[in-house]
Amino acid sequence: MRFSINIDHIATLRNARADVQPDPITAALLAEQAGVDGIVVHLREDRRHINDRDVRILREVITTKLDLEMAATDEIVKIACETVPDLATIVPEKRQELTTEGGIDVIDNFTLLHDAIADLHKYKIPVSLFIEPIQEQIESAIELKADYIEIHTGHFANAASEEQMFEELEKVRQATKYAKRFGLGVNAGHGLNYSNIKIFRELEDIDEVSIGHAVIARAVFVGLQQAIRDMLTLLKK
Ligand code: PXP
């Protein structure tokens, strides 16, 4: 199971003072040195954390993989086509939300996604759709010729009881199995942390986890590279 780090919250901290520190580019390079498999950033419509310049520079300097999280809007699709990330992960986006609140409804947004995926594929950008672990959603992702799905793990991470957590884990397992049968790559993320990853890592067929908040929060106390090494240790056990 590979590990990509989402560095949005380094930029959140920087923007809190409209300053240049802490610099997300430095964070990405340090993260690569510590052993992550990729860097994830979400260029939001409101640019509340990562900005256009961050994306441009990251594209130039990182040596692992750049996963650009994005809404399927004309503006952001155009930026993605200019930047050519290693993966474009399409997420739903609402202005008022604190963070992405769930997977995109592939069935409701079929035409919008069809057009965005076609544009991104023209530039040979593989596309991932951030979705709930539901078979109909995966079927639509296959129909749309998505290359990957990223399964929303928020319900697993926020489960109110152990029983519910294992139920949610099983949904992710089944969704992974189904998607893999059709040749889709499978990533996962949202709410994964140093505690629940010990259970989540059982799902060995998942290609990659995308983790942000928990690692950046720990980094405040132990440093970014130590926080990353701690997560890598758990993932490899
Ligand atoms: N994957 C997606 C699609 C996300 O939107 C986020 C949150 O930005 C993450 C993964 C990482 O979630 P967290 O910050 O809770 O680890």
Please characterize this protein's 3D structure:
With 237 residues, the chain is of the alpha/beta class. It has a single domain (2-236), classed as Aldolase class I (TIM Barrel). The chain has 11 helices and 8 strands. The chain has helices at residues 8-16, 24-34, 52-61, 74-83, 110-122, 135-143, 154-157, 162-181, 197-200, 213-222, 224-236; strands at residues 2-6, 38-42, 66-70, 87-90, 127-131, 148-152, 185-189, 208-211. An 8-stranded parallel β-barrel has the order 1-2-3-4-5-6-7-8, surrounded by 8 helices. Helix 4 (74-83) links the parallel strand 3 and strand 4. Helix 2 (24-34) packs across helix 11 and helix 4 runs parallel beside helix 5 (110-122). The mean pLDDT is 96. Bound molecules: pyridoxine-5'-phosphate (PXP).
Mean pLDDT: 96
How many separate domains make up the residues?
1
What portion of residues is helical?
40-55%
Uncertain regions spanning at least 5 consecutive residues? none
Question: What is the CATH homology-level superfamily?
Answer: Aldolase class I
| CATH fold descriptor | TIM Barrel
Q: What is the helix tally? A: 11
- Give Rg in angstroms: 17 Å
Helix-strand topology string: EHHEHEHEHEHEHHEHEHH
Structural class: alpha/beta
Major pleated sheet: 8 strands, parallel, barrel
Shape, per Cα inertia axes: globular
How many strands appear in the DSSP assignment? 8
Bound molecules: pyridoxine-5'-phosphate
Can you identify the CATH class? Alpha Beta
- The CATH architecture assignment turns out to be Alpha-Beta Barrel
Tell me the strand order in the biggest sheet: 1-2-3-4-5-6-7-8
Beta-strand content:
15-25%
Q: Cα distance, first to last residue?
A: 11 Å
